[in-house]
């Protein structure tokens, strides 16, 4: 995060860990205090703001997208509480509500305006809820393999119950099967070299693995957050431009159709042969899709918002 940002936020220097070489993460990351966490925040580029939100793994998932979009956009991502390089107070409870407060904190402390929320997976829940507390700052939403409602249906809730189970969590802490699977081509690894795979895996340490499963568990029970999200999508966010980008091979619960039911004018893109991380499977395609959609649908709204109010 550069020092030239003119905000009142208290930015804390973060030392680069030895395992995260600049060749695999070519960005400066700083700390930002929100609640009882010091969020690891990366702030790159100039232009309209893209706030990239995820909860479960860490910011490495956005690397290739940032590299392609930071010439035209100010790209901001952060590690959610419990994930990656973010540091939390001892005994901190990991929940989607806490992740949503992190979203709100980043927006408010960095004094972000005209924000496009770019959310992946459970970042759709944390992102929409967090952004809904500052609705006047939000200009558009991008959902990538994301949901924005209470999970329903036996198959989806069973999957969340199995992955969010305490036994599954502690088994993963020992064996690391989630980060190992996520580094494959099914996850983020389709275009990663060996050094990048090792860095991503290291960033999902035992603490991060526990947080991943705790977020999944919380998705079954955070009803107050779902009420907040529903009010936002039906209220101040209902007229926003929406873009959804899903991998062709990873929409088993029909989330794209559910987004269309909420936003009939949504622009929807399917990444051929894509899996759960479309921005990693096809970063060029995803970057150009966001760039063209923003130019066509979001930028005109920004220009309208900047026009002076005529006096009588």
What does this protein look like?
The protein has helices spanning 63-69, 96-109, 123-131, 154-163, 166-175, 177-182, 194-203, 206-218, 223-234, 255-262, 278-281, 283-306; strands spanning 11-13, 29-34, 37-44, 49-53, 74-78, 87-88, 115-120, 138-144, 242-247, 267-271. The chain is α/β, with parallel strands linked by helices and 312 residues long. The protein has a single domain (11-306), classed as Alpha/Beta hydrolase fold, catalytic domain (Rossmann fold), CATH 3.40.50.1820. Strands 1, 2, 3, 4, 5, 6, 7, 8, 9 and 10 form a 10-stranded mixed β-sheet that branches.
Short synopsis of the structure:
The chain is of the alpha/beta class and 312 residues long. The chain is 41% helix and 17% strand. Helix 3 links the parallel strand 7 and strand 8.
Question: Which tags fit this structure?
Answer:
alpha/beta, 312 residues, ten-stranded mixed sheet, Rossmann fold
CATH architecture: 3-Layer(aba) Sandwich
Unreliable stretches (pLDDT < 50, length at least 5) are none
The average pLDDT is 95
Helix tally? 12
- Domain module tally: 1
What is the H/E string?
EEEEHEEHEHEHHHHHHEHEHH
Helix share, percent: 40-55%
Silhouette = globular
Furnish the topology, listing elements before pairings:
Elements: E1 11-13, E2 29-34, E3 37-44, E4 49-53, H1 63-69, E5 74-78, E6 87-88, H2 96-109, E7 115-120, H3 123-131, E8 138-144, H4 154-163, H5 166-175, H6 177-182, H7 194-203, H8 206-218, H9 223-234, E9 242-247, H10 255-262, E10 267-271, H11 278-281, H12 283-306
Parallel strand pairs: 4-5, 4-7, 7-8, 8-9, 9-10
Antiparallel strand pairs: 1-2, 2-3, 3-5, 3-6
Helix pairs in contact: 1-12, 2-3, 3-9, 5-8
């Amino acid at each position: 995060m550069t020092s030239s940002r003119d905000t009142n936020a208290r930015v804390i220097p973060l030392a680069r860990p030895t395992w995260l070489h600049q060749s695999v993460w070519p960005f400066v990351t700083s700390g930002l205090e929100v609640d009882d966490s010091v969020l690891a925040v990366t702030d790159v580029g100039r232009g309209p703001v893209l706030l990239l939100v995820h909860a479960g793994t860490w910011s490495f998932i956005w690397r290739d997208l940032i590299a392609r979009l930071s010439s035209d956009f100010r790209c901001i991502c952060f590690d959610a509480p419990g994930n990656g390089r973010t540091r939390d107070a001892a005994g901190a409870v990991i929940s989607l509500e806490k992740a949503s407060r992190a979203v709100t904190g980043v927006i408010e402390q960095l004094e972000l305006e005209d924000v496009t929320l770019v959310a992946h997976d459970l970042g759709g829940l944390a992102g929409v809820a967090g952004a809904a507390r500052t609705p006047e700052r939000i200009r558009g939403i991008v959902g990538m393999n994301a949901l924005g409602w209470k999970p329903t249906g036996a198959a989806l809730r069973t999957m969340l119950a199995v992955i969010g189970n305490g036994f599954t969590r502690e088994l993963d802490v020992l064996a690391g099967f989630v980060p190992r699977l996520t580094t494959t081509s099914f996850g983020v690894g389709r275009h990663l070299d060996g050094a990048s795979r090792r860095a991503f895996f290291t960033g999902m340490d035992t603490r991060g693995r526990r947080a991943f499963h705790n977020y999944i568990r919380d998705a079954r029970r955070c009803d107050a957050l779902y009420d907040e999200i529903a009010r936002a999508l039906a209220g101040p966010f209902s007229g926003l431009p929406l873009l959804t980008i899903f991998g062709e091979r990873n929409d088993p619960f029909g989330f794209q159709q559910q987004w269309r039911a909420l936003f009939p004018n949504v622009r929807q893109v399917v990444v051929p042969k894509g899996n759960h991380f479309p921005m990693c499977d096809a970063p060029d395609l995803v970057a150009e899709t966001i760039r063209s959609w923003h130019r066509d649908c979001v930028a005109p709204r920004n220009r309208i918002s900047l026009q002076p109010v005529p006096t009588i």
